Amino acid sequence: MTRSPHADRDTAEDGAAGGSAAGESASGAAGVGGTGANGAAAAGAAGTAGPAGADGQAASPPTDPPAASPGYPRHWEADVVASDGGIVHLRPILPSDGEALLRFHESLSERTRYLRFFGPYPRIPPRDLERFTVVDHRSRVAFICLLGDEIIAVGRYEGLPGDGGPGGTEGTAGIDSAEVAFVARDTHQGRGLGSILLEHLAAAARENGLRRFEAEVLVENHAMVRVFRQAGYQVSREFADGVLHLEFDIDPTEKSLAVRDSREQRAEARSVHNALHPTSVAVIGASTDPSKIGHAVFANLLRGNFTGPVYPVNSEARSVRGVRAYPSVTDIPDDVDLAVVAVPAAGVDEVMDSCLAKGVKALVVVSSGFADSGADGSGAQRRLVEEARAHGMRVIGPNALGVANTDPEVRLNATLAPTLPGRGRVGFFSQSGALGIAILAAARGRGLGLSTFVSAGNRADLSGNDLLQYWQTDPATDVVLLYLETFGNPRKFGRLARRLARTKPIVAVKSGRHSAPIPAHAEVSTPIDDASVKVLFEQAGVIRVETLSELFDTALLLAYQPLPDGPRTAVVGNSTALGLLVTDGLLDSGLDPAGPAVDVGTAASPGEFAAAVSAAVHSDECDALVAVFVPPIAIPGAEYARALREAVAGSGKPVVAVFLAVEGVPAELALPGPDGSPGPGSVPSFPSPERAVAALARVSRYARWRSRPVGEFVTPAGIDLDRARALVATLPEGRLDDESAVALLDCFGIPLTAFRRVRGADAAAAAADELGYPVAIKAVGDRWRHRTDLVGVRLDIGTAPGVRRAVEDLVALTGDDEVYVQRMAPKGLSCVLEVVEDPSFGSLLSFGLSGVATELLGDRAFRVVPVSDQDAAALVRGPRAAPLLAGYRGSEPTDLDALEQIVLRVGKIAEELPEVRSLALDPVLASAQGVFVTGARVVLGPAPSRDDGGPRRLG
């Protein structure tokens, strides 16, 4: 075991420390031998320099970082969701945190101190206190978790002298491993704080060039052993004298990333669950005036028969709607889980103080006057969220319509809408509060039942990404609907949506396709153009619609009918004209008519109509059915509707009806659920054939996406990331020279066809002799080489005299005698593969075939990084001209597998080296003999921020 230089100190700190036996695997305390533990607490936050000041107005970053610590790494600060759904603020330690650290240590039980320090350590001596709070943020790093202005957990690592290793950054030279330790306050064990600290310590260590952690844990400390074992790293263990010595590499592995994502999902889902499943609700600003929003939301809670107590808070009224009122939320005698805030923005600070004191878990702020009102309101909104997060609360809003849950065990209508849709299995997230009431009314009018509804308004905190996490494991939700105006973290949205859409369809309206985002909703959002939205949704399997009407059309079909197994669609009706309209719509939408439309005639009885429908839907040649019917005057249409519903029951195939002028799910087409609302098996009706077919086509495309294999994020063989990172670190920003570009591509297993850059005809002829004939001669400069007319290129030159003539031609054209001489690659289709900068995602991959027509038509396919093997296959088959690669009209097909491999390798460059701001492989010659890269351009620049690439954090 490696011991530290301070191992002879006579404090318990110098022994190995362990985690608390209490709590789950992600909490408690872990220790290390010697100074690797270096203190019960890795930091604290007290005084005015930390995010949580003594006045309780916590959560903002340190107000005076230079005075706090030289080189303070502010980018390490994060708000993180604990496993119980509460928020903790995590940041590096500051020298001013000493008093809070002492309070934290005093709060630990004797048992926790023993497990952490392997012996009694009742107080921290001044000498140790300074060492614990003054760190260099490189070889010695310490983090604290804060709730308000109190430390609830600490973690630290201290570098160990080693063999040198990778060297690290300044301050870690010669160090490649560190001892790690953490401890949580007894009352906060079981909240996953240990795993959170380990993630952030490992990320900081990797940033500082470290590659390995060591720890020592008492054998009896089972909880802390689980923290390390379940983190996803490959841990080696040695046992001696009742102590486990653990070592593991901290580079992310597929398993460790999966563990991180799983914990993130459970924690963020729990935070949403707390808001949607409260056991009690307080309405702050509940007014006796029916025209006030505080009165409306309180009345709606009562009208909806919420299963728990509802407390009106009004300092000037004894009661509201006959319910005793309280002057402040702190005066309520019982616990309050959810607070609905309906007071003017100017009074929210006072409300926040009382909610923080009461321990409220979540706030729904329906008040306006925040970011929606300008710069002053934006500042108030930020303070609102900072204070709430610092004290463990989530915020929905401000300017929100509210939240609803139709579960009969909850019956929550904390919204401004007087009535909700019936119970269903559809979750709805709306970024707009103004549209919320109309959305709920439209859902109710069409017979679309909901499980839960959240209107986030300004979306200052809780967002659509949080709801995706919740709905992934919510057993009451089968379909997800989104109305989005902006994205907060589009990379995270893509990751979550791709995962969720594999089991539950997501239908989204993204407004602002041709305009800037609403200012109130753009403050915490990333700009994203519509082309990128299209790529994101397509890659993640999200069903994109343009209007709310299309949203509900698609949702009705998904909510009540199964997914189709294929595109074959039968048509049955009593009008030849309508049958033709439907058939045209099927062909326009990419669906296949399953034979001619069946016309039962206008005089057909309900039984005859049902027989035709049954024969069609049960045919082996049919995957879906469109029933088009104009009710005859003599017989009520209701009889035909009931006959249709009974005929298709249990078919296992999706059925849509077009009963003209009927929209939604009429009673005759519905199979009632437990509360009388339409349930699975109900047949949705559309007012026109076009809308019915369009909805079916969207669902069919989604079913086709979902049936494809789940892509794997593979790393092709022969990639040397360490060499690539070291190379990039030595290169200046801007376009790389040829030698550097070739070296970088070689790190990723992408060879360029051999070339030389020379001056003059004689040197070109000599280079051609060296490379071997035939060769290509290319002018230097993109102006000449990358034109589609190839004016600056001479190909298939087989002799030295031919080389000289080619050079003379190019000198006459360009006035420059410098040329490229390149060995000819096998002839093939010319393609272009690029990494293009995107303001929202950092990088996109673009692929297309070369040529004037392709450039004019913009025939390119795109994918968001990272790309899976399935993404690579889809990318090279995405352009409209892609059939040329597969052997168009009898031509020899190209090696598509090799082309996909090049895509995966370029995707790794974009993923692992964000400093590569653009890269173009042009041209790439694809043929049956393989894929050959004959040109490359690489540009380096400042790495963009990636909010979804590190340890867990809100955002």
Automatic annotation (TrEMBL):
Domain ATP-grasp per the UniProt entry, residue ranges: 742-779
Superkingdom of the organism of origin: Bacteria
PROSITE patterns, per the entry: ATP_GRASP, GNAT
Protein name (record): GNAT family N-acetyltransferase
Ranges where the record places region Disordered: 1-74
Keyword field: ATP-binding, Nucleotide-binding
PANTHER family the record matches: COA BINDING DOMAIN CONTAINING PROTEIN (PTHR42793), PEPTIDYL-LYSINE N-ACETYLTRANSFERASE PATZ (PTHR42793:SF1)
Biased composition (Basic and acidic residues): 1-12
Domain N-acetyltransferase, chain residue ranges per copy: 88-251
Entries under Pfam families matching the protein: Acetyltransf_1, ATP-grasp_5, CoA_binding_2, Succ_CoA_lig
Keyword Metal-binding: no
